[in-house]
Amino acid sequence: MREWEKHIRKVEPYTPGEQPLEKDIIKLNTNENPYPPAPEVIKAGREISGEMFSRYPDPEAGILVEALAERYHLSREEIFTGVGSDDVLGMAFLTFFNSDKPILFPEITYSFYEVWADLFQIPYKRPKLSDDFRIEAKDYKVENGGVVLANPNAPTSIWEPLEKIEEIVKYNQDSIVIIDEAYIDFGGQSAAALLSKYDNLLVVQTFSKSRSLAGMRIGFAMGNRRLIQAMNGVKYSYNSYTMSQAALAMGAASIKAEEYFRETTKKIIEVREWTKKELLRLGFSFPDSMTNFLFITHKAVEAEKLFCWLREQKIFVRYFKKPILEDYLRVTIGTKKDMELFVQKAEEYLDLTK
Ligand code: PMP
Fold first, then answer.
1. How many angstroms separate the Cα of 303 from the Cα of each of 152, 212, 286, 315, 318?
2. What is the best residue among 28, 29, 110, 151 to mutate for testing ligand 1's pocket, by most ligand atoms within 8 Å of CB?
3. What pLDDT is attached to residue 94?
4. CA-based angle 293:13:113, to the nearest 5?
5. How far is residue 281's CA from residue 50's CA, in Å, rounded to a whole number?
6. Rounded Cα–Cα distance for residues 148 and 333 (Å)
């Protein structure tokens, strides 16, 4: 081994979902929104030209922060924005988790948390979920260097009521509790409602799911101004011009297109409920999803085989080859037409394997 090789930071990276280039597939593998962004958002993107390309973007993300502050009834100082919520969460880990005590996040949750903890050399513990995949408040009422919970959780799709979240935030006044609400707009109630009561709470959301902007990479955090100031301190010590002017303009336009946002999220929820009924009819079981995906399993079917078969049929879903998760498939809610085809193909597979 060469001397310099010994000093390379070793990490087990996060595995992102596949982004295949084929156009004729049904893509239900990365929880994207099947509808395009609002027309105003596309228009805002088209208006980006000339000087905006040659100049650096606004490092303070002013137009986006302003729009978010107005929408969520907060001040600008209570909002942090970044290149997708992954960027925001990564910055939050780097900013807040610097004690010797382990941070806590569930054994089954968004797998990036473990990757950031490893990357930033933060000790961590992963309490188990209950048998029905619920987060148990008591597991987070122990000494810790911080808490991270996805609510709704991924890939389980389960939303925990705000009382449980509050119990955890309230107990942990001495550490920062991050609530990752990537999927909150599909029926859950946001912990942003607790922000005025707790200065140790950071709520993180994204434009990638409910706002059809996964490609623009926009995420944000809401929290007490001291938390946001600390995150900005770290951000400006690393990379100040993070978000492109196109992302800022499109993000701000998206926040203003409230009616379109309501309509598309409503459509996704309706299609999700339709899909649940159909899958129950076929004998699948799944937690009661409050997200734009279903976490499904079937007694008579090997998840990996169904995953491969669906793929041959050009339907992409997500399969995690890990203990517990390996019996399940995570299926994003697409359009009604996508889901009709998905259900039809799942039924065909069940008939084939009878
Ligand atoms: N949190 C959770 C729970 C997620 O599932 C995702 C999507 N992979 C993210 C955060 C990150 O999303 P983005 O960076 O697109 O905002």
1. 23, 28, 13, 14, 10
2. 110
3. 98
4. 55
5. 55
6. 25
Task: State the Cα–Cα distance between residues 58 and 319, nearest whole angstrom.
Answer: 39
| 145 in Cβ contact with 139 (< 8 Å) | no
Is residue 149 in contact with ligand 1, taking CB distance under 6 Å? no
- The partner residues of 329 in beta bridges, in order of sequence, read 296
Which atom of ligand 1 lies nearest, measured to the CA of 206? 16
Q: Is 214 in the pocket of ligand 1 (CB under 6 A)?
A: yes
Q: Using CA positions, which residue lies closest to atom 6 of ligand 1?
A: 182
**What is the reported pTM?**
0.97
Q: How far apart are CA 305 and CA 310, in angstroms?
A: 9
Q: What is the mean pLDDT of the chain?
A: 97
- Is 90 exceeded by the pLDDT of residue 17? no
| Interval 86-94 mean pLDDT | 98
User: Domains, the chain, ranges and CATH?
Assistant: 16-36+259-352 (3.90.1150.10), 39-256 (3.40.640.10)
336-352 and 258-281 helices cross at what angle (nearest 10)?
A: 20
82 in ligand 1 pocket by Cβ < 6 Å?
no
> In testing the pocket of ligand 1, which one of 80, 112, 181 has its CB within 8 Å of the most ligand atoms?
112
Tokens of 297: 């399993």
Do the Cβ atoms of 290 and 153 come closer than 8 Å? no
The helix-helix angle for 258-281 and 245-256 (nearest 10°) equals 80
pLDDT of residue 333: 98
Question: CA-CA distance, 7 to 222, in Å (whole number)?
Answer: 37
Amino acid at 275: T
Helix (H) or strand (E) holding 204: strand 201-206
Among all chains, which residue has been given the structure tokens 């899958």? 279
Report how far residue 248's alpha carbon sits from residue 42's, in angstroms, rounded to the nearest whole number.
12
